[in-house]
Amino acid sequence: MSERTRSVLVAVVLVAIYVALTTLRQAGAIDEYWSQVMDLSLIITISAVGLSLIYGFTGQFSLGHAAFYGIGAYVAGYVTKTLGGSLPLYVLALAAGAAFAAAVAFLIGLPILRLRSDYLGIATLGFGIIVKVVMDNTDKFLPAMGGPRGMLGIPQVTTFGWIYWAAVATIVLARNLVHSSPGRAAIAVREDEIAADIMGIDTTRYKTLMFVLGAGLAGLAGGLYAHRYPFLHPTSFDFLKSLDVLLIVVLGGLGSLTGTVVTAIGWVFLLEWLRNVLPQDFLDWRGVIYALVLIVLMILRPQGLLGGRELVLVPRREPAKGGSSHAAA
Amino acid sequence: MFLEQLLNGLQLGLVYALIALGYTMVYGIIKLINFAHGDVFMVGAYLGVLGYTVWKLPFPVAVVVAMAGAAVLGVTIERLAYRPLRVRNAPRIAALITAIGVSLFLEYFSSLRFVFGPNYRVVDRPFKDVRWQLGPLGISNIQVIVLLTVIALLLLLQFVVYRTKIGKAMRAVSFDMDAARLMGIDVDRVISFTFAIGSALAAAAGILYVMAYPQIYPFMGIMPGLKAFTAAVLGGIGNIPGAVLGALIMGMAEVFTVGYVTSDYRDAVAFSILILVLLVRPAGLLGKAGPEKV
Questions:
Q1: Does the reported pTM lie above 0.90?
Q2: Chain B residues with CB inside 8 Å of A130's CB?
Q3: Which residues of B touch A323 (CB under 8 A)?
Q4: What backbone torsions phi and psi does residue A257 show, to the nearest 5 degrees?
Q5: How far apart, in whole angstroms, are the C-alpha atoms of residue A250 and residue A265?
Q6: Do you know which InterPro entries this protein is assigned to (chain B) (predicted)?
Q7: How many CB pairs under 8 A join A and B?
Q8: A287 with B267: Cβ contact below 8 A
Q9: Tens digit of each residue's pLDDT (9 = 90 or more) over A75-94
Q10: What would the pLDDT profile of A195-237 be if each residue is shown by its tens digit?
Q11: Contact across the interface for B112 and A285, Cβ inside 8 Å
Q12: Tell me, what DSSP letter sits at residue B127?
């Protein structure tokens, strides 16, 4: 199958899935609750693909991804809450959220991306906590943001179409990026930063590029989230939420976009399924089961579910080196 | 006022130091950020409180029981969760994610109703809070106990690490695990021992923390854990004096922010200091920036 027919085929399949899901939702076969879960899983996918670019492909250990997600959500929400939720303003809000998250990532990335592995992780963790504290205090300088009481009154204009196509666009973008020259440079940085440097790769440039792009995607996801669920609260963007995406990226297999996407969707649905399938008395066990699944999965498959491999979703043009046992932890 | 703030900062910093030691020792040996350590601190606090309230043990006995319980917990975690990965040479990130899993497990398991229950609980102190006025300085008996206990434990740790055989083995393993193994050191035993000591210190920290801020809940370990870990990084991870120094800085920064600026930014200031320090000294204050490995 040629590259071209394959692309057309993928496009047809994507449209077919979209039509099928929309029809099922409108017919009520997928109820409101599961629609919300589905939307959330796709939003998380966008954010996780962002982290996958930063950590999975470039090897930059970031523990503060939720901060960019939160920045995107708050900035986008602020735009439409104060200016109104018409379509152009909504697009502007999404763009502003993503751009703001990317700009912050650029400013924080320039100095801290010099740090290596665990130290970078801790610096990004600290950054995430600082952002959470700022969110808790937003009402002091912008009352509309709500601070610790949370932000209400954002127009709920995000539809399934927006989320679905944003997720598709994100995955296509990431897939093309990973196979492009900057993407390969980033992978070289992940495999061995010093060797990459010696081969003439401007490591700072590609680390920053991927960090900014990944944060921008998290910001976009945040903007979609803000206009889909009626309540923004700082605790939705704290350290634990950063762990969620990290878990998804690692469980999926570092350096595997397919793994990231499948795990993101699977993880959100697993948690909701547990909420429904457990008898009332055992609901408290959800967190315990979540933790045990995590531990057992890691002990059985330390390289992640897909371990750097890709499925049809992201066809390879040529054999790319999979796996990343060398990626800094 | 200033002196009292200094004393409060010292108290909080020393409690962080006890937790930070566990992080730094484990990291020094197996390069693992043991995320579950903050939760061992929480379990230790619960055991101590149960000890003197429910089981009616004398306070010092309750402390020892809690420390022993936490030590067993730490060793068990290492055995069941981390060792299988180490044996199979799994990537470090797998161990880190497992540590996060263990952390969540301890938090949620403790939240179950038949364990500790999900709610905040205000706890009784084992003795009355007495304040003395020494000139301009007000000091409470709890502060005295925290200071003395932590200093005693630090001296004890110093003794164990630098004056005993197992301490020597710990230093050897942390310097070069493979060479130590070739020299006939039972590396697994040393790692277990490190987890045991670190966890016991965390339990002691948990009880001291609860005496100072008398409430308890299953997620109480997250923030002190993160801060203690940050303190260890700030001081130069793997370095014992560095952990104490970093913890004192974190404690002071937190207390002074609350005292002189606003409690709203309490958590932000300490982490800002961390980022600034890392920018200037990427391996922490006392850490040595070794040559880059090629």
A1: no
A2: 267-268, 271-272, 275
A3: none
A4: -70, -40
A5: 14
A6: ABC_BtuC-like (IPR037294), ABC_transp_permease (IPR001851), BCAA_transport_permease (IPR052157)
A7: 136
A8: no
A9: 999 999 999 889 999 999 99
A10: 999 999 999 999 999 999 999 999 999 999 999 998 899 999 9
A11: yes
A12: S
